[in-house]
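**Folding the chain**
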Amino acid sequence: MIKKKIKDKQVLVFLENNPDFFVENIEILDKINFPIDSMKLQNKDKNIITFKDWIIENLKNTQKNIIDNARYNFFTQKKIHKSVVEILKKDNKSEFFDFLTTKLPHYFDLEIINIVTCNFDVSKKYNLYSKSKDLIDKIYGVENQLIMDAVDHDVLIFEKSSKIYSNAIFSLSNKIFGSPSLLVFGSKDKHFVDNKAYELILFFSNVVQEKLNQFSYE
């Protein structure tokens, strides 16, 4: 009798179509090898472990991520609270925008914090980003929306020379400049890809927006 070789793809299709297979056949898990890290499989013998050890390893990684996120949020919260106090002290527009676009990026270890507007006069006067209304409308969405993700290179907010990898984009109220505008944060690393400190950045963005509402741009 000729035995047919089962291809990897057939196994994958079977498991996808039978998601409860291991639940119903739990004993087989003790006979299966698992990778320590799927990104480090150059040496298979040193990177294969049992199901039990695989579970333990994943729990360790999960715990480490929770601790890292908590630590990151703690330091970010302290920085945001301090920067908010400084923002509230600014009564001069030029001083406020200089603090926002020049000093805060260094404080938060970011490449860019700025405002994108189609109001050319305002952008020129305060050294903000000037973009077309059509481009801003593509990103804007709804008022007070916050997006955190990798940079969309089809929508050119940042200059390519800045090599921004990830960004956070907050849609400011139309009342501020009389047209849609964006508060943008840019980083050369994956700073904004995993939504770390989302609520803190949203809070900070709303503080900036409230401060902008206190100024007149007529």
